[in-house]
Structure formats: C-alpha cells, structure tokens
Amino acid sequence: MLCGVGVTDGVDNKVVAAVGQNNEGNFVNNYDISTDEWTASNNVQTMMMMDSAISRSGKVVAATGFNTFVSTDAKTFTKASVIGVSQAIYSWGSDGESIALVGGFDVPNPDGKAPLQVDGVAYSTDSGASFSVSGDVEGGDARYGAFPTPSTWYVTQGMWAESEQEALVKKLSGDNYRWENEKDPAYISAYHRLNSRLKMHKTGKLELDLSRPVKSMNTTTGWWGAISKTTDGGKTWKQVFLTNPDTDYIYFNQISCFSEDNCMAVAEGQDAEGNDLVAVYATRDGGATWTKTFSPAIMSLMGCVAVNDKEGWISGVTMSGRTMEGQFFKTVDGGKTFDLVQSLSNCYPMDLDFGVEFGAAACISQSGSSSAVAFYK
C-alpha cells in the first residue's frame, strides 16, 4: 500500500511527495519535470508520513505526525529540533528558502515540567537548519497556512464532531497507544484525522469513510471553523473570522493568498438538514471582512492555492454514482468566481500546489488503500 497525503511543488521544476509503503518504510519521493523521473529518498525512520515541502535550492522538510525531518539532498533525512503534529508544510519567502509547518508543537515549559503545546506555526528561515515556534493561536486546532509576506501570515482552524464511539474511546483510553487489534480502544485512539472523512493510524493505515455521520448529540454542533492572522511574524495572532458553533457545521482546510490582503480559504461540513456543504470564503481587505464566493454541490473541499495575483485553484471530491471523482476548479479573478476545469476518477485530492510550470495534487483512492500524484501541465 502506497499512501501519500501531502505534495508540494516548491520550485519551478520539482515536486516532493510524502509516502509510506507497507513492509517497505517511509519515503519522500521526488519528481523532476525536466527528466520526467521519480526518485525515492532513503527510508525515513518514523511511523507515518504526513506532508513534505521543498525549498527553491532543493532542501526538503517532512512532517511525520510527531517528529520533523530535514534533508539537504532530498535523499538522506535527519531529525529536526521541532516536535509536533502537522499535516501542512510550506516553502515561502522571496528567496523560497523559508519553511513553515502548521499544527500543534511542543515548547519548553518554564517550570521544567512536561513541554507545553502551542497551536500555530513552526518556522525556519534557513531551509530547515533551525526552527522557531510562533505564539499560540486563539482557539487552537490550527490546520493550514498562507505566508504572503515575511511578517503577515494566515492560518485556518477548525474541528468536527466526533462520533460517539470516538468520544468514548478518547475518554477511556487517553494516550494509551498499545493495541491488540483494530477494535481495541487504544488502537482507535492512535488515529490522526486529516479531516472528518479520512483518518490515518500511526501505523500508516488510511481509512476513508465517505458516509461518516457528522451530527453531534450535544446541544451545539461540535463543529467550528476560524481564520487567524499575524502581522508580526507569528508573535501575536488575531482571529479574523469565526463560524457560529451553535448553527454552523463547517471547519476550514487550506488557505492561500493572491496578495497580502486578498486571500481565499476552503471550508467543508454539512448544512442544518444534513446535506454536504462546502464553500470558498474570500477577503480583499486583509481579513477585515470575509465573503462566501462559491459553494459547489460536492461533498468535500480540501485544496486551495493561488498561483498569481488573479489565478488560483481549489480541489474537492464528489460521488458520481458509486464512483468517487476529484473536482478541480479554477479562478482567474482572484477568487470571485470559479469554473470546473476537470474531473478525475478515483481521486480524493487531499493536497494541492502549483509551481510556475505545472501543478500537483495528492490523490487518495476510493478504497483508501493507495494514493497517487496527479499533474496539471
């Protein structure tokens, strides 16, 4: 089984994809458009691979669900200083050499006790040689980010309602990761959910449930979404958009910016009647106001990337009969309107990125047992 949930096109002619293969190990696969060839890194000694990114000079960073690994040659990886859980890595900056991970990270405790956790951004301005951790984002649950300038960043946030079984497992087993079989509560507790429909076990096994119920039995929906912004390089954050947890069943996935003030973010969930609901929210005033600009009739919307000051892409998934189809939409007016460009059978696009010459999407198969990278040229 080959499972890759993150892909990054950080330079003009290369793509890196984080993958894990049963009985083989974990790797970062590298694609060179000039030679049309894939090469694999050495085995990365970790339980699972989440995402990867490449700087303009070819430095590679990989997130593995707890530890972060870096490489100067895209072949051999060493463990970096940052520890935490992230499914979103970016290369950014005018020189393309800065790296950022969005998620939850350990920081030293002033009392000398167990490390504290910060939800926000772990960032490096030296191609992954050293990392710093931003201030804590209000509300936590940081998911994806955008870095239009060295000091102005955005992160999306959100969470979905847990099933009654998952809530009970969390209550009873906590962080007990020893397990005997797939029905063991401790096995279930060792999952990391990529979204409300897809989860990855620490063994690397992916499970996709396109019919998973989302409504909570609580008085509130159990779902919430937010967008936060920093203008001082992560020192402080301000929440610039928040859903209503009493009525809204949505959370946010990827966000991307056409400029410092013009950004778009994708959200997914359900409406009050239980129908699938996805939406694009856009701002043109630096996050002061957000407008829902597009809401296609599909079931999930994960990918979002701005290519230049007008062009951008979003990616999601729908069902055509019993067949899962990836949906790729394009905007040429900075996120105001979108057109469906292509449908791709048996592809759940979990991650999306574009370079100068081509785009790449990480696709999970309908069974959840395999994955592939789709290219747009």
Jot down its keywords.
377 residues, mainly beta, Methylamine Dehydrogenase, Chain H, 7-stranded antiparallel sheet, 4-stranded antiparallel sheet
Description:
A 7-stranded antiparallel β-sheet has the order 5-6-7-8-9-10-11, with no helix packed on it. A 4-stranded antiparallel β-sheet has the order 1-2-3-4, with no helix packed on it. It contains 2 helices and 29 strands. The chain is mainly beta. The chain is 4% helix and 51% strand. Mean pLDDT is 84; it is low at 173-180. The two termini are 27 Å apart. β12 (142-146) and β13 form a beta hairpin. The chain has one domain (2-160, 195-376): YVTN repeat-like/Quinoprotein amine dehydrogenase (Methylamine Dehydrogenase, Chain H), CATH 2.130.10.10.
What secondary-structure arrangement, pairings included, does this model have?
Elements: E1 2-11, E2 14-21, E3 25-32, E4 37-40, E5 51-54, E6 60-63, E7 67-71, E8 78-92, E9 98-107, E10 116-124, E11 132-133, E12 142-146, E13 153-159, H1 164-173, H2 185-189, E14 191-193, E15 198-201, E16 206-208, E17 224-230, E18 238-242, E19 249-257, E20 263-270, E21 276-283, E22 291-294, E23 300-306, E24 312-320, E25 323-331, E26 339-345, E27 348-354, E28 359-364, E29 371-376
Antiparallel strand pairs: 1-2, 2-3, 3-4, 5-6, 6-7, 7-8, 8-9, 9-10, 10-11, 12-13, 13-17, 14-15, 15-16, 17-18, 19-20, 20-21, 21-22, 23-24, 24-25, 25-26, 27-28, 28-29
